[in-house]
């Protein structure tokens, strides 16, 4: 799956957009390793202003704290690349935007930056959904920096659709 095309990214965003528009819901993103690529993929679609609210890009600890309300002590204990922080990023994006669905991604896209137990390609995700649903997950993607980031965008969007209640 290392080769993720723009067409696959667009299709994933379109599928999610259709469900959100049908429900009258909005979405926001909280991104670190993707640098806003999830938001870009969503807003590449014509009419995205009907369902896409905003995106937060927060690489540093202080940005995660200030923009999203991530707890500093948790950053110091778990590190920015952890499911705990991804979940807090998703919750913070929901509380600050009022969007019905938020998704967060924080990871190590490479080529450097890997640590023991946290290899290059590790990405942690969080989804916060209207009604109190919170989910988190992590994946280890293969490939170069761009491939890791593309896989991250695709996984975040496809899993968001899977997490939505029926």
Summarize the structure.
With 166 residues, the protein is of the alpha/beta class. The protein is built from six helices and five strands. Helix 1 runs parallel beside helix 6.
Task: Pick out its properties.
166 residues, alpha/beta, Maf protein, 5-stranded mixed sheet, 6 helices, globular
Question: Which helices and strands, and how do they pair?
Answer:
Elements (H helix, E strand, L loop, with lengths): L5 H18 L3 E5 L5 H7 L8 E6 L3 H8 L3 H7 L4 H15 L3 E7 L14 E8 L3 E8 L4 H19 L3
Parallel strand pairs: 1-2, 1-3
Antiparallel strand pairs: 3-4, 4-5
Helix pairs in contact: 1-6
Structural class: alpha/beta
Biggest sheet details: 5 strands, mixed
CATH superfamily placement: CinA-like
Task: Give the beta-strand count.
Answer: 5
Element-by-element helix/strand order? HEHEHHHEEEH
CATH architecture: Alpha-Beta Complex
**Share of helix, binned:** 40-55%
Q: What is Rg?
A: 15 Å
Number of domains as seen in the coordinates: 1
Strand order within the widest sheet?
2-1-3-4-5
Write down the overall mean pLDDT: 97
Q: What is the straight-line distance between the termini?
A: 28 Å
- State the CATH topology: Maf protein
- Shape category: globular
């Amino acid at each position: 799956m290392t080769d993720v095309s723009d067409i696959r990214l667009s299709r994933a965003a379109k599928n999610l957009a259709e469900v959100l528009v049908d429900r009258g819901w909005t979405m926001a993103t909280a991104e670190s390793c993707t640098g806003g690529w999830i938001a870009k993929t969503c807003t590449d679609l014509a009419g995205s202003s009907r369902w896409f609210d905003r995106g937060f890009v927060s690489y540093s600890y202080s940005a995660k704290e200030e923009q999203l309300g991530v707890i500093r002590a948790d950053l110091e204990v778990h590190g920015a690349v952890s499911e705990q922080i991804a979940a807090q990023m998703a919750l913070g994006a929901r509380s600050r935007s009022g969007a019905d669905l938020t998704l967060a991604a924080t990871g190590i896209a490479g080529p450097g930056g890997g640590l023991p137990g946290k290899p290059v390609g590790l990405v942690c995700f969080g989804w916060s959904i209207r009604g109190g649903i919170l989910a988190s997950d992590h994946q280890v993607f293969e490939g170069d920096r761009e491939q890791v980031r593309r896989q991250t965008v695709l996984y975040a969007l496809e899993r968001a659709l899977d997490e939505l209640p029926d």
